[in-house]
Amino acid sequence: MAIAEKLRSDPKLLEKVRDRLRGMLSDERVSISTRDAYREWLEVIERDGFEQVLSLLVDSGEEGTRLRQATPFAGILSKAEREAITRNLIFRLGMNCESN
Asked: What whole-number distance in Å separates Cα of residue 91 and Cα of residue 74?
């Protein structure tokens, strides 16, 4: 969800993702299965557009879950943003453990 929120606040980041995807598709060090997933992400970006990308990023269904297994969105969130998410998750997990 954080990545979708960040993209919504700065849609130009999706252009960077698209450019990164194009580069990774030609990188032979990337596994074939990962390249297939990246190719699918690129198709979604180019064919279906911004709103569909956001939808897949938060989709709890099979398609969204499958696509997020090989995410090209690494680097969208800053280290500070990732750390804040981790702290929040740890706090919420701790709260759930205490209530049990």
From this structure: 24
On the question of pLDDT at 98 being above 60, the answer is no
pLDDT in tens, 48-76: 999 999 999 999 999 999 999 988 998 89
pLDDT for the residue numbered 96: 63
Higher per-residue pLDDT: 29 or 74: 29
Residue range(s) defining the domain that contains residue 30? 2-99
* Distance, CA of 1 to CA of 85 (rounded, Å): 10
Quote the number of domains for the chain: 1
Task: Tell me if 56 sits within 8 A of 64, measured CB to CB.
Answer: yes
Angle CA(48)–CA(67)–CA(79) in degrees, nearest 5? Answer: 100
Q: How far apart are CA 94 and CA 99, in angstroms?
A: 9
* DSSP structure class, residue 56: H
> Which helix (H) or strand (E) element contains residue 58?
helix 50-58
